[in-house]
Amino acid sequence: MSLSAVLALPATAVPLAAPSAPDLATTDGFRRTCAAQPVNADVLRTDDERLAWAICRDVDQVRQLSTWARRGLARINHLQPEDQAAVVAEVERKMDEVRAEMRRTRLQLERVQLGAGRSLRIAPGQWQVDLDGDGELSVWERHFFALPKRRHGEPQFGMPSDDAGHYERHYDLNAVIDLDQSDVLWALSYHQFIEGLLINIRAFDVDLQRRELVLARPALLRQAHGLIGRGLATSGRLRDAVLAETDDQNEWISHPRQVNSVFPIPLEAADFTTWRVMLDQVGVLWHGRHLLPTTAGAGGLLGSLAPVCPAGQGLDIAKLYLQPPPAGTRASLNRLPAALTTMCRKVDAAHPLSPLPGRLERDTAGATGMSALRYLYWVN
User: Fold this and answer.
1) DSSP 3-state of 226
2) For this UniProt entry, which residues form the secretion signal (predicted)?
């Protein structure tokens, strides 16, 4: 058939190549899938497409940050003291860039509703990226996204290694995960917390000459409070979703009856109870129903804060974020601002002191760090 004849056929008669399905379980598939991702998320139509887009964007964010850090450190080493303001401006610019990107991926994750179904199969150990931008793929870059082997006990953390044997001994290089809704909630809560933290930081400017923090954008504190509060709620939904699962197929976070999981720390029934208690206590503290004990004599985690509030009062975290001090309020890096005392509230039956700081101190006292690490794993 001639070319002119083909062009004369109805459009439905011309065979079109179907777009390839996302493949995040092989090295070549990961590269091909991520290279094909659109810049504009508005064209995404399915949950699989949204998840592939979010994963590829997040991995690329890690690449951009790693490259920026490598080149930035090289520049900083040659800067003079009078150039410190330029360094601060560059860091602030990068935080704003990352925050905007986190928001874009968060909005796509919020749209994913898998129900009881499954989505993509992913194999993070196959994601190989030139992270530092030097044009080479080092051993640590080939295995950067690999998952530590699943086991009880203290996980091993350290700087990236160029010893291939290290990864073979301590990492599950072939781990696969069949994504379900609990995995989406896990990723979403991380995005909400990290974006909220960056917004929190950008509420402040740094006065290098006077070594002070300046509350420059109080409205950002209100944004941060809302986003972090949503992260706490998402973590609660994540816990409930994991416990409700009845299958056992290439899981990420798993409940005690699921054994086919690659999550580095096996979670037991008591861990899920602690997860709920922690979320409850953090939630009421975050929303101002419990008060933070910051009176004279407070030790441990709050020792550097005391005394913010007089005896019989506690710090209202919600008020601090939702009714912040005025723009221009300054805080020395060595001394808390007097304006914080206006965030204190009388302790009463409706607003008791939070038991959370004491609980954290008891749980981590004399420990090797496992308790704190588990909290990070569970509650993001």
Assistant:
1) helix
2) 1-17
